[in-house]
Amino acid sequence: MRGEDLKAAQAPLKARYREEPDAATVTLSASGRLAEGVTCRVQTGQAMAQAGLHPASGGDGRSLCSGDMLLEALVACAGVTLNAVATSMGIELRDADIHAEGTLDFRGTLGVDRTVPVGFKSIALSFALDTDADNDQIATLLKLTERYCVVLQTISQPPSLSVRRA
User: Fold this and answer.
1) Beta-strand (E) ranges in 28-92?
2) N- to C-terminal Cα distance for the chain?
């Protein structure tokens, strides 16, 4: 896609959202259902995914780990955002590798040590870019990618969250 095409596709949306701010609010959802063993089947946009325990917490490794899925969502969002920002800026990316790595301590998840937090201790996101853009352009590209990546911003600034019985 060319920058002009992306801008043309987004222009009416931006105009509408300026005029009708409530129109910009969209609710996304995900659903799952318990499956065989200690797994949960999650409906994705393209297929059914079966998530289960990571081997470090007793899983057999045959099901997807939700921690891996979180990192995959981050990579997907960062990659799409990077591509959209580069397109908008007129930066040609011949290729880009996006990598996320998260570290967690399973003692928290397994209740072995209550002082150990449950969840990721750290997440690192990196980009290897094949482009002729100069260092200033790349810095701007990465800054804007970070700013507009929904998953990255959600992880770094968690939203309010509620858990309830339906």
Assistant:
1) 32-35, 39-43, 48-52, 64-65
2) 42
CA atoms within 13 A on the CB side of 137: 14
Does position 46 have pLDDT exceeding 90, yes or no?
Answer: no
Q: How far is CA 103 from the centre of its chain?
A: 16
Q: Are 130 and 93 in contact (CB under 8 A)?
A: yes
Smallest Cα–Cα separation from 57: which of 100, 116, 101? 116
Q: In what order do the strands lie in the sheet with 32-35?
A: 32-35, 39-43, 48-52, 64-65
Q: Rounded to the nearest 10 degrees, what angle do helices 135-148 and 66-89 cross at?
A: 130
Reported as type and span, the H/E element at residue 141 is: helix 135-148
pLDDT digit string, tens, across residues 98-123 = 999 999 999 999 999 999 999 999 99
Segment 8-18, tens digit of pLDDT: 999 999 999 99
Q: Say how far residue 53 (Cα) sits from the centre of its chain.
A: 20
Residue 150 sits at φ, ψ, to 5 deg, of -60, -45
Q: What is the spatial distance between Cα 107 and Cα 123, in angstroms, rounded to a whole number?
A: 18
